[in-house]
Every structure is written in structure tokens, then in C-alpha cells.
Amino acid sequence: MTNNKIQKRLFYLTVSLLFLPMLQVLVSFVTVAKLGGYEPIPANVQFNKADWATGTYQEGKEQYLKTHWGFRNWALRLDHQIAYSLYNQSKVHAVVIGKEDYLFDYDYILEHNGKFEVKEFEINTRLNRLVQLQDTLKKLGKHLMVVIGPNKADFFPEYLPDKDQIPREGLKTNYDYYVKGMRQRNINLVDANGWFLEMKGKTAYPLFPQTGIHFSFYGAALFADSIISHVEEALNKDLPDLTWTDMVMAKEPREEDDDLEDALNILGNIPSYELPYPTIVIDEKGKYKPRSLTIGDSFYWRFVNWGGLQKVWNNGQFWYYNKDAHPSNRQVANLDFGKEIEKAEVICILMASVNLWRFGFGFDDQLYKYYFGNQKDLRILDEDEVVAEAPEQPSDFDALVVRKIQEARKNKEWFGFIQEKAKKEGMDTETALRNEAVYIVKQELGMLDD
Q1: Which of these, 202, 114, 199, lies nearest to 153 by C-alpha position?
Q2: 24-33, 203-212, 249-258 — which is least confidently predicted?
Q3: Among 7, 247, 308, 396, fewest CB within 10 Å belongs to which?
Q4: What is the spatial distance between Cα 400 and Cα 180, in angstroms, rounded to a whole number?
Q5: CB-based contacts of 360: which residues, under 8 Å, 6+ apart?
């Protein structure tokens, strides 16, 4: 009799446990913390006969229920913790667990290892246009500058997983190509990535957190100060001073200094070294504050959060990914582009090296169109049109390449050589023709390494 009672109680307990997730969905009787990182959550779908007949309703409802069952977040964290603790594996695609529990964003490793395509043809055209814009804006009393933020994978390659520590010889990255091209053209540049690498092992405090994507608070302060110093020199003005006091060393990361660990979604904490947290002070008394417009990514947020838009700049504007305008919280697409440009004395294009493949987030194209909208873009003309309309000595890299392709087609001996070369190397003739033209133009312009 006693055994039967125990069995019945176990049965009822088991059934009750099975219904707990459903009860949690209905009344949320237990508070479950949200998952870290970014996860697109599908919206619930409303029933209608048309969607039911096509199966759209069923598919939408299935996707919704997959992310809305009771205690899902606890179950996911437990699963992720097991993968991390037992197998040193990340269940989150964007988070890579390196040596000694250093965490990296996967895209930053891809850029570090040259996995993002380096589109030389487009990059050279973009940089040539930046030169035009820089010169034009300078005549209008404006300063155009480019800032490249640091890459943690570049800074800590020794902590990358073995499979991501590949030979560097002959490796081509967007960062290397952009920096070299900008320096050759004297484009106003703050290369924080290169500067951080030079400072490695020489600073009083860590420049990067162990379990975060971005730089440390101390690194962010140095980054912000370098931007201010660059503008001071360019404008020959005394701008507000950004300094720090009361440097506190914390054993636990604060704010977004553990954002990669947060995105990993495990139950426990990953031990890390102490991190510096300075108190930022901006002295604006009697200083010159230029109007600024910065188009950039998340590496600018700490400067914004420290009050830099108001305390360093005069009503500074931040266009996050060229989409969201701050501090107005408006959509950039709804702003009067021309008015915003005319108001700015300093225009800054800021991005981490990982975002160079989408340089400027479209802003530089908009700016070029604003000032040179009546000029034809040589990147989209066909060969005959370029040859017919380009000047005798075209300065645009793309025009030079297209001109060289046209010359090769007309030279039977040269074109035959390219066809034979393409056949031997197993590529199509058009690709071989363009590669040949790009190589020769670079050679003529002195752009090839010795």
C-alpha cells in the first residue's frame, strides 16, 4: 500500500512538472532573466482563414512557440554551461572561446585573418573620392576625418584558438589595404588599431577586457583623447580637455565589459583580470567647441555616454550606423542631409576594422552625391562609355582599369596572351583580363610593393 502511494505521488509530481512550462507561459509565476546578446524574437501571429489555408499561420505560430515556452532561458543557459564547462565550446556562433578563457567576436577574427573580401577596385575608387571630398570640405572650412577602432583579435592573436592562428605571410585584410591607401593619399586618419598595437604591454592598465568586444574604459578614454587631439591640431584650436581621476580597479567587469560573456548565456561567471574604471572629467571652460557630425559604430558610444556630444562638441551629432541619429533619437533618413552637413565643422567617419568592408555605412556615397551629384560615377559605366567620355588622362582608378581593359581587347597579341594565361590557371577570360588590367594600373601608379 505504501509503495502504491509513493508511485501515485511520483506520477502526479511528474505530470505536474510537465505542465509547469505551460503554466509559466500563462501566468509567469517565476521571474526568468532575459538572455544576453541579440536574438531576433518572432512576433505572435493572428489566426485567419487565408493564412491557415496557405500554411503561413502554422509556420508563424511554430516559430513563435519555439521561443516562448516556459523556462526556455534557464534550459538554454544550462545547455550552454555544459558545453562550456565540459567541452570548452561556445553554443553561440558569434562568440569564440580562445585560450585562457579569452572571448572574441567571430567577425573580428574573420577580419584579422583576411576572410572578408578585399575589393581593391572599389576601395581605390572610394579613397580617391574621399580625397575629393576632403579637399572640397577643407575649402568650405570643414574637416573630414576617418577613425578606425581597434580589433581585439589583432591585439591578442596569441589567445586565439589554434585553428585561427594562421600564417600571416601574404595575408590581405581590409584594414591593411585601407590604411595603406589612406596614408598614400594623405587622407585625415586616426588609426587607433595600429596605435593600440604599438602600446601593447606599455600601458599602465589593460586596454581590452578579457570577456568583452570593445576596449576597456581606460582604452576608451585614450581613444577619445586621440580624436580630440587630432581635431585640435587640424583646426588649430584649443578644445575641451578629457582627463580622468580616481582610477578604480574592479575584479568584476562592469557595464558592457563582459558583453561577450553575457552573449554566451551560461549560468556561471568567467574569471577575468581586474579592469580599470576611471572617473572621466571634461574641462570645457573657455574652450573652443566645434559643431561635429560622427557617423560610426558602437566604438563611439562610451564617448557619447560620457557627455562628449555636448561637452566636447557644440551640439554634436552621432549617426549610429548611418541609421539612428543621436541625441535626437530620429531616423537619419528623415533628416535634411544637406542642412546637417552644412552645420558641421567636423565630419568624422568612425568604425572598427571589422566594419571596413562596409566603409562609412553608405554615408560617404551620400556625401559624394551631395557635392558631386552631377558627375558620372565611373564605377557603373560600361567600357565604351568610359573610353568615350573619360578625359585623356583619367585620374579615377576605375577609369584607368577600364581603359586598360579596352586596350587589351584591341591588342590581339596581348589579348591572346591573357586568354592562354586564363586557360592555364583555370579561370575565365574576363576575370584574367580584369586582374591583368588592375595589376598594370597599379604598376603604373606605383601602388605595388617592391
Answers
A1: 114
A2: 24-33
A3: 7
A4: 20
A5: 295, 322, 349, 351
Residues 108-155 pLDDT 10s: 999 999 999 898 888 998 999 999 999 999 999 999 999 999 999 999
For 113, the grid coordinates are 585573418
Cell 561577450 belongs to residue: 260
- Element at 147 (helix H, strand E): strand 143-149
Segments making up each domain of the chain, as ranges: 1-31, 99-372, 383-445
Could you report the per-residue pLDDT of 299-336, keeping only the tens digit for each?
999 999 999 999 999 999 999 999 999 999 999 999 99
Evaluated on CA atoms 166, 172, 175, 180, the torsion sign reads positive
What sign has the CA pseudo-torsion 18, 19, 25, 28?
negative
Beta strands 103-105 and 95-97 are antiparallel
Contacts 24+ apart (CB under 8 A), 427-435: 433/405, 433/408, 433/409, 434/121, 434/401, 434/405
Distance CA 375, CA 152 (A): 40
Q: Please list the residues that pair with 249 across neighbouring strands.
A: 276
Q: Is 246 helix (H, G, I), strand (E, B) or coil?
A: strand
| Identity at 281, one-letter amino acid code | V
**Measured CA angle at 265 (ends 262, 266), to 5 deg:** 110
CA atoms of 203 and 150, how far apart (whole Å): 15
